[in-house]
Amino acid sequence: MGDDYNKVTNLVKSLVVDKFSKVSEPGNQEFTTTKVSSLIQEDSESLYQASWRYVNMSTTPLKIITSGYILLTSLGYSFLCGLILIVVIPIITVQLWKQAEIYWNEHRELKQKKTAEVKELIDNAKIIKLYGWV
């Protein structure tokens, strides 16, 4: 509990120092009260979301252990087959997403190359038409 409190406290301090440095710089005279208020509101929203992440990080392992114990006592060791699937399927999914990402990156690069070649072709056709070489 104390570790989570320290993390949140440090996060708040770093956000306040960051905003103060942005507002207090001499070159940043364009900050109005509305702008500062919106910056603080954005930071408070991100802090709120971060605090929920910390709560989930501390309670999720306890929930998993409790659920595993209840399943073990009610189903016996047969629940391990389902547990293995729950562990293995995300690993397989991550590997498939990595391969798909590589494919889509190559696809995007080829598409950009094709678009650049078509643009160059159209530009050259415009030059030919401009000079009346046809």
Descriptive overview:
This protein has helices at residues 2-24, 33-75, 79-131. The chain has one domain. It starts with a helix and ends with a helix. It has 134 residues and is an all-alpha fold. It is flat.
Structural class based on helices, strands and sheet pairing = mainly alpha
Q: State the helix count.
A: 3
Share of residues in strands: under 5%
| Global shape | flat
Cα end-to-end separation:
79 Å
List keywords for this structure.
3 helices, flat, single chain, 134 residues
Helix and strand layout, with pairings?
Layout: H1 2-24, H2 33-75, H3 79-131
Helix pairs in contact: 1-2
Summed up:
This protein is mainly alpha-helical and 134 residues long.
